[in-house]
């Protein structure tokens, strides 16, 4: 994505200032669990519930039938200073069951016990079969008006502002799995438009594993843990996954994306989103255009390195959801531009020889540039995970006038599957009435009753035509905003279980992706395939995997085969002649550093003025400083107190995008192996530097992160065996100078030239 401003970017960027002004700044650094600091003793004086934190909000207050209520959000939250039953009766005790004497049996008449336990027993709903592990945020979308010529959708008209709720997720793992596993990520956006809800339900990869929805149970069953042992969790490095995708080679293109750095994003904030399918847009005159939707992050597309992802899964399995929530709380609101690739709506639904109905194919941006049509800013965290993030229900068929579906066979199946899933998960057909799912447009649907019906309908004639309710509701026409499907021609054909011949090409676009990668990215892909296939037990699955790689590129196949200790097979199809697409690579550009996390290592006693200077400079640059010292508390030494956010015990390199060394800390009091397993007693004695600081620095260096040092901090570089002039290392006499150099390196995400690739 180019950093050049589009003609309307100045207007679009007003959103950031608007939402920033609307939210009062909270703590200087994010992460406080509540809106007020607690006291040491248990509070005993009755008071009303605390307000939410400054960064939190809930669904807008609309009725179950889409009517704005005007009620403040605290009207749907708990109220009152006293503990009550679900019916509002105040309680004097909730710690003891009602018994026949202090040591007697519990009485059946204890209605409070039964209500409390019964509700607890039913607190959980079935988790999503896929995309169970998620995080979400509220925001606003503002349209540039650039789509006005291709769609009559009102929320895409110039200047239109639409509330949104976005849920990010992993595909394979359970709700309790880790964030940083290698997997596809969901990127689902709910637009609460004036014409109804529009859901853009996509992923962080533009292609899918399969071409037809009838195979979705197969790919998910293959990717999920083995049914006999329920392992491995949240990963594809096992036999059943690779057995399926090597037999069903239409998965090859998506598999290559998953084995690239796209499979382990640095942050949800630094992740692209794609609508995957081809949609059909219709404008006010009835003309149609085929489009693909893209979300382009303003911070750029960045990833973790594999070891870093593995360490993070253990150190902080909530890494991605914490990063998103902390950034919003700190005011570093993530932004994405929504863009479209447009194609003529021709009878064959092809573009430059690419089948637009095949969800395993992309159209390179060099052939069809992505045209920005609006800006989305996420500016508030949910106030309740279950009510919002867990209960939000997306559906590909939630459409508004001006947007229609295509005959993509994967998309067609999703149109059925999503509603069917929500009925099971959310207990019945009225899931749209949950606050997070409520439309902001009036509803008069004649749907009645069912489990969890919260609307109180009026009238006696929920049918039409009728006269008893005065004929209401009436059908609308195109001139009164009706949703009318595009009257597309349906080809005359026999009923068949088949696909177009163009769906048979499974390797040319995988080769396009491979050839578009930089040498560094190719190294990572080789390592990923070697790891994943190396985790398979069956030799036949590994050999079949190599056959697929041979049809992509002989060097890729040879490198992976060498790692597996197997012979590289010959290609079974002619290698496609393709032009690389530079837009597919994540490297080679610079991006804003908003929200990047920088660790500042100090001995806690010396050079604190420089620590304060660095800390202030980091905050001024829109980044997050975390001070790391031998112990917690506050550091003063003659100046303003400096809060310690991490200690040598609690810090790990995976949390930081860069590390600054403000001193050379001697081994702290707890720097011995029995107290902290990260400690190396021999290294402590040999270097005189706390070994956990050495581990922090060497690990960050190994992962390609920027490292800066001034004053005695240069001693740590020396003891860690790092040259002061190594790639990605900045040393100098002043904190501000070092910080400037580190910030410049962060704009490129990592010091990739630190590790010359072999390929």
Automatic annotation (TrEMBL):
Enzyme nomenclature, EC number: 1.11.1.6
Record keyword Electron transport present: no
InterPro entries: Catalase (IPR018028), Catalase_AS (IPR024708), Catalase_clade2 (IPR024712), Catalase_clade2_helical (IPR043156), Catalase_core (IPR011614), Catalase_haem_BS (IPR002226), Catalase_immune_responsive (IPR010582), Catalase_large_C (IPR041399)
A GO molecular-function annotation: catalase activity
Keywords: Heme, Hydrogen peroxide, Iron, Metal-binding, Oxidoreductase, Peroxidase
Keyword Heme among UniProt keywords: yes
Residue stretches of biased makeup (Polar residues): 58-70
Residues covered by region (Disordered): 1-75
The Catalase core domain, residue ranges: 84-472
Cofactor: heme
Chemical reaction(s) catalysed: 2 H2O2 = O2 + 2 H2O
Primary enzyme class: oxidoreductase
Compositional bias annotation for Basic and acidic residues: 42-57
Family: Belongs to the catalase family. HPII subfamily.
Function: Decomposes hydrogen peroxide into water and oxygen; serves to protect cells from the toxic effects of hydrogen peroxide.
Name listed for the protein in its UniProt record: Catalase
Origin species: Streptomyces castrisilvae
